[in-house]
């Protein structure tokens, strides 16, 4: 079997790339080691930047997103018992974010892929990439007990942080930058109507907490815990107790309580691989970089990577030019590092670090007081939160 672009991984990066290529008339094969249901049901983040929403609509996969997505023109920063509103739209010339679960995006993209009739294989085993330095790289994998092989013009490594593509690159050809954080997030989905129309990021003496949502009936909540925290240590009652302690404000606002339908602990990591390319293998999304979720940038970075990659591949096939492909890594990494900077800033502004003193906490409160009182500081938060522009023109 031969295809133009072999795509490994059917997360947001792989599926978006497959659809962008399909719209440009470029053939691809997507291989995914998990099942279709697993991929659709995996609960992940849910904030889409304006640019990501625009991209999905332009690609013709924004119909349900426009119907069911919740457009937010602002957010709250809460500390010392008070919520402070940040008007994203006012501060950015009308930009906003949209809350729409990543798993919903994935579902829409799988449906769109099915409608094109192009190959998407779930539950494949033993995926290996070969000959990335040659003009005919190859993917081998097992499907229904048989060994299969796909030769490609290019391979896109969209297989997330734990995938096989990045580790297939020889050590001398790639460099990793990494930072582990001294906490994780305990997250729940609850059947409770959101008690705020916008997200609330809280810095409490007991630690960070975040109020978010998925729909008019489902609330999504998180709080900071030690990185190795075992979810089994937390009964639903204890989770609600801690949520209420951290989130309740002096004006009486608090989240509505309801049955917990999903819960888990996610570690926090910052990671960048440079360059995002080896020969004819291109890394995109979480396989190349991870940001802590505080800035809500993960999915949006994956979307920009594949936008650049699809445009580079289109330029190669239509004009026989490698101009954008040659610059792929540099174009993406410039934005990735700015998102790392912002995610790190949001994280350290809002979390409590082990070993901090009373002095550190008072300084942190002053930082937040400055942030929510200065239009300049709020503008900086807002323009990063809604998404920085990609600094290049793509075909
Ligand atoms: N072979 C095939 N598929 C694989 C392999 C493998 N060896 N290893 C992993 N995969 C699949 C995973 O099962 C997953 O479906 O690759 C996919 C990677 O998807 P994501 O982890 O969602 O990564 P990405 O598509 O880059 O999306 C980035 O996801 O983790 C979130 O917050 C992150 O929003 C960001 C987004
Ligand atoms: C979410 O709704 O899951 C969410 C929202 C904002 C974040 C992270 C996660 O910063």
Characteristics of this structure?
single chain; 395 residues; alpha+beta; 8-stranded mixed beta sheet; 30% strand; binds adenosine-5-diphosphoribose; binds P-hydroxybenzoic acid
Structure commentary:
It is a single chain. The chain has 395 residues and is α+β, with helices and mostly antiparallel strands. The protein has helices at 12-23, 36-41, 50-58, 63-68, 88-91, 102-116, 236-247, 298-319, 323-350, 358-373, 375-386; strands at 2-8, 28-31, 47-48, 70-72, 75-79, 82-86, 97-99, 119-121, 125-130, 138-143, 146-157, 175-191, 200-204, 207-215, 218-225, 260-274, 277-278, 281-283, 289-290. Strands 1, 2, 8, 9, 10, 11, 17 and 18 form an eight-stranded mixed beta sheet that branches. The radius of gyration is 21 Å and the shape is globular. The protein starts with a strand and ends in a 9-residue tail after the last helix. It binds adenosine-5-diphosphoribose (APR) and P-hydroxybenzoic acid (PHB). P-hydroxybenzoic acid is lined by residues 45-47, 199, 210, 212, 220, 293-294, 296. Adenosine-5-diphosphoribose (APR) binds next to α1 and α8.
Task: Give a quick rundown of the structure.
This protein is of the alpha+beta class and 395 residues long.
